[in-house]
Amino acid sequence: MVIHSAKMMASILCILGINSLSHSASANENLEHIESKSYNLMPSEMTEPLAVTFDLGWDSQYISQGRDNLQNGGIYWLNTSVQYGNLTSYALVGRGDSQVYTEWNLGLEYGFNLAENLEANLGYQRIEGYGSSRCQDNELFAELAYTATPWLIPSINYVYSAEANGYFVEMSLHSFWNITDHLSLTPYITQGFDFKYRTAEHNGKNNLQFGLESNYQLSPNMSVSGHISHSIAQGDIEQEAAANGDTSSQDQTYAGIHFAMTF
């Protein structure tokens, strides 16, 4: 399933998470499998060999691959990640704010340089989702980003789902701009392609998404980030909707905010 604030594609920390609240609705019956959400930041030099990050956030809708994964409302996120050198482990939990849905993501990621300014990430994650029914998946993911110029960073993301026996590819352009010493803005655009990841019947163009991410550094160890994003449905989503008899617009607009603290 899922779903995005401001961290760079060259080092996915998968900063997301959840809040313990009480809910009364039921989860989306049509969810076949679930997928975690990654937030990207500009890469920075590590000053310590070990870093622990806590991230608390909220998204107005749970959007991934251009689809709203919940019938009602948005989702809270809480993530804890531990980075030691190039290796990052994380535990992420998300919970619907208007219906009964809980999702856990446990993962491990390794980042390295293939060449100067060419950064890569490889990882694995286990996903468990609980709503009106239980969902689970094992995923492998990889990312490649060229970071020579902060104002135009191309990247490509790949994720493979063992449950669906399919994969999803995203090709993105991010442009990072420091407005002040504390504030940065990042417009982005992403083209997604589905290959039996969300639908078994259709392959090819899935959605075109663009938006604006922002990050404000409160202190060297604390930051607040946000995003507003718009997704335009393409062939895979439109064919899936038509097969389900849904003639409404499949475009999505959503926003989110996150607070992160690193030790």
Given the helix and strand composition, which structural class is it? mainly beta
Average per-residue pLDDT, rounded, comes to: 86
Percent range for β-strand residues: over 45%
Output the number of helix runs.
1
> How would the global form be characterised?
globular
Strand order, main sheet: write it out: 1-4-5-6-7-8-9-10-12-13-14-15
* N-end to C-end Cα span: 30 Å
What would you say this structure looks like, in words?
With 263 residues, the chain is mainly beta. 3% of the residues lie in helices and 56% in strands. The strands form two sheets. The protein has a twelve-stranded antiparallel barrel with strand order 1-4-5-6-7-8-9-10-12-13-14-15. It has a two-stranded antiparallel sheet with strand order 2-3. A hairpin with a 5-residue loop joins strand 5 and strand 6. It is globular. The two termini are 30 Å apart.
List the helices and strands and how they pair.
Blueprint lengths: L49 E10 L3 E2 L2 E2 L6 E10 L2 E10 L5 E14 L2 E13 L3 E13 L6 E9 L4 E9 L2 E2 L4 E13 L7 E17 L2 E12 L1 H9 L8 E11 L1
Antiparallel strand pairs: 1-4, 1-15, 2-3, 4-5, 5-6, 6-7, 7-8, 8-9, 9-10, 10-12, 11-12, 12-13, 13-14, 14-15
Compose a concise summary of this entry.
By secondary structure, this protein is mostly beta strands. It has one helix at about 235-245; strands at about 50-60, 65, 65-70, 75-85, 85-95, 100-115, 120-130, 135-145, 155-160, 165-175, 175-180, 185-195, 205-220, 220-235, 250-260.
Q: What keywords describe this structure?
A:
263 residues, mainly beta, twelve-stranded antiparallel barrel, globular, disordered N terminus
